[in-house]
Write a structure and sequence with these properties.
alpha+beta; Umud Fragment, subunit A; six-stranded antiparallel β-sheet; 3 helices
Length: 191
């Protein structure tokens, strides 16, 4: 969880087993290629080395918009004159201004999931709603578990009190029987 929070805060992909996924929020990669991406597609990306990139690959890299870090998924269209690679969204008319290099490169696209678009869109657009629903569910679970613990504790205390009461009754009966026996013995000794 800490790693995931850190990844979100730093706008970094969270890789598990070398793979991660990301929801595509824009139409910059809409196109006719088999690996073009529509808005709300879920892109599965693989962590790899910068040396494995080839022209034509769809890659994920770190960029900035209004001095805020963002992850971009665009196609490699050529070598950049300053080093690294030039990239461009399939739907965009011009190449990206800054080159992709080893420092800002994050991963390479491997596959997409399209049938979950409505859920992906809801997750991306309605984060507060989802957070609220999950919070209510979590709160419900906490309340349910608290009630369960209280019931178990109460039942345990009742059983303990019942057992103590039974012991006191047994002890009282024992004392009563013992007293009667002593009285009988005293009477028989007197006679």
């Amino acid at each position: 969880m800490v790693i995931g929070a850190r990844a979100i805060r730093q706008n970094e992909p969270l890789f598990i087993g070398g793979y991660s996924f990301s929801i595509v929020p824009t139409d910059s990669m809409v196109g006719d290629n088999p690996d073009s991406l529509d808005p709300w597609d879920i892109a599965i990306i693989r962590k790899t080395t910068f040396d494995e990139i080839e022209i034509g690959d769809v890659i994920v890299f770190q960029s900035e918009i209004n001095n805020k870090p963002i992850l971009v998924i665009h196609r490699v269209v050529g070598l950049h004159p300053d080093g690294g690679y030039e990239t461009k969204g399939d739907h965009n008319t011009s190449v990206d201004m800054n080159p992709v290099n080893e420092t800002n490169f994050k991963a390479i696209y491997t596959a997409k999931i399209t049938f979950l678009k409505p859920i992906a869109q809801l997750a991306a657009v309605q984060k507060n709603l989802i957070f609220g629903v999950l919070s209510v569910l979590l709160l419900g679970m906490v309340v349910s578990e608290t009630i369960h613990i209280i019931k178990i504790t109460k039942k345990s205390q009742e059983e303990k009190l019942k057992k103590e009461q039974e012991e006191r009754i047994k002890e009282a009966l024992y004392q009563e029987v013992l007293q009667e026996e002593l009285e009988k013995k005293e009477k028989s000794n007197e006679s």
